[in-house]
């Protein structure tokens, strides 16, 4: 059996670790605002992709006591259409904009909602078909266990729908594309 090597091996190990740690995390993510299905190279993805973080089922009370959401943040990366190959990073020229999202508390949280993150001003600079992979990351704290104190822990991933980037993309009129990305997202 061929084992992946180099960066591909790192991605494979990272995803395996994320799957293992997601079961331990009291949180799960959902994409609540998908990026557009079509975009032009270099244009901002509007509406801005947005994720909601919720408590994982029955662990709500234990999670409140066990972990603080302020130690979490979300990271967006560009992946292939099938979601299996990480493209950016490692490439720094394929995507630009806000790739790191702070988890913000919702103003009117539904039962189990913890916070959301918005990835505004994201631009894909090359034609092709892609997805965004958003990872929920936990920063180590002074109280972290020794194994976690070595670095950031990926606690789970979600992927958006496919984004087809091409010069002839049909985009809404400008007045419908001025979503600033700062207001509270509406729930699906």
Largest sheet: 7 strands, mixed
SSE string, helices as H and strands as E: HEEEHEEEEEEEEE
Radius of gyration: 17 Å
Determine the strand fraction and express it as a percent band.
25-35%
Count the DSSP helices: 2
Q: Total strand count, please?
A: 12
Termini separation: 42 Å
Question: What is the oligomeric state here?
Answer: single chain
Structural overview:
With 188 residues, the chain is mainly beta. The chain contains two helices and twelve strands, in the order αβββαβββββββββ. The strands form three sheets. Strands 2, 4, 5, 7, 10, 11 and 12 form a seven-stranded mixed beta sheet that branches. A three-stranded antiparallel beta sheet has the order 1-3-8, with no helix packed on it. It has a two-stranded antiparallel ribbon with strand order 6-9. 28% of the residues are buried.
How would you describe this structure in keywords?
188 residues, 3-stranded antiparallel sheet, globular, single chain, 2 helices, 7-stranded mixed sheet, 13% helix
Helix-strand layout with pairing:
Blueprint: H1 6-22, E1 27-33, E2 38-39, E3 50-55, H2 60-66, E4 72-80, E5 86-88, E6 95-96, E7 100-102, E8 113-118, E9 123-124, E10 128-138, E11 153-159, E12 163-165
Parallel strand pairs: 2-12
Antiparallel strand pairs: 1-3, 3-8, 4-5, 4-7, 4-10, 6-9, 10-11, 10-12
Give the structure's gist in a few sentences:
This protein has 188 residues and is mainly β.
């Amino acid at each position: 059996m061929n084992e992946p090597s180099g960066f591909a091996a790192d991605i494979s190990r990272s995803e395996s670790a994320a799957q293992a740690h997601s079961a331990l995390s009291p949180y799960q993510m959902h994409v609540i605002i998908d990026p557009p299905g079509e975009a032009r190279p270099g244009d901002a993805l509007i509406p801005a992709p947005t994720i909601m973080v919720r408590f994982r089922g029955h662990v709500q009370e234990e999670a409140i006591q066990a972990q603080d959401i302020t130690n979490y943040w979300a990271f967006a990366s560009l992946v292939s259409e099938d979601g299996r190959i990480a493209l950016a990073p490692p490439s720094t020229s394929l995507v630009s904009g806000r790739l790191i999202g702070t988890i913000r508390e919702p103003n009117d949280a539904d039962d189990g909602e913890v916070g959301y993150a918005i990835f505004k001003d994201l631009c894909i600079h090359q034609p092709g078909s892609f997805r965004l992979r958003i990872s929920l990351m936990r920063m180590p704290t002074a109280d972290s266990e020794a194994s976690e104190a070595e670095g950031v822990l990926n606690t789970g991933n979600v992927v958006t729908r496919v984004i087809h980037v091409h010069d002839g993309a049909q985009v809404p009129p400008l007045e419908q594309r001025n979503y600033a990305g700062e207001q509270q997202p509406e729930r699906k």
